[in-house]
Amino acid sequence: MTRLLRIFKLHRFNNTLFVIGSIIKEKKMELMMTGFVTTIMLVVSSFAMFFVEHQAQPDKFNNIFSALWWEVKIWDDLSVDNRIAGYRSDCASTQKAHVEKLQQLEEMKRLELVSETEYKELREELIKRFVD
Questions:
Q1: Is 90 exceeded by the pLDDT of residue 33?
Q2: How far apart are CA 117 and CA 122, in angstroms?
């Protein structure tokens, strides 16, 4: 292990890596709970999207797993990095689906996954697409 650290010259960051490791150990329960809540939110919203969109688009929402994949893509689209490239609405076409996206954004704001300015920008963008 020390040879590997020497090869990549990571020994300079040994103290930093130790601090990061101790923080992860200390906040293990909070990290696990965040992952659990995120997973539950994804599953519940994918079930909702399947029942909302399956009638309108049975080819794109043919099962729960396709809806789950769509939810993961939407969460990725709502991230700050992809917002620059523009919000993609690949599959959802019904008004209920756009309302679902707005609800997801509200939940992300409540969980403080997006800042207030990012929330306002994303919300305006979603509403603009909803009206179109």
A1: yes
A2: 9
pLDDT value of residue 101:
77
Q: What letter would DSSP give residue 22?
A: H
Q: CA 51, 55, 67: angle at the middle one, nearest 5?
A: 45
Q: Could you report the per-residue pLDDT of 118-131, keeping only the tens digit for each?
A: 888 888 877 777 67
pTM greater than 0.70 (yes/no): no
Q: Give me the amino acid identity at 61.
A: F
Q: What is the pLDDT of residue 23?
A: 92
Among residues 100, 113, 108, the alpha carbon closest in space to that of 67 is found at 100
CA distances from 84 to 50, 66, 72 (A): 28, 25, 18
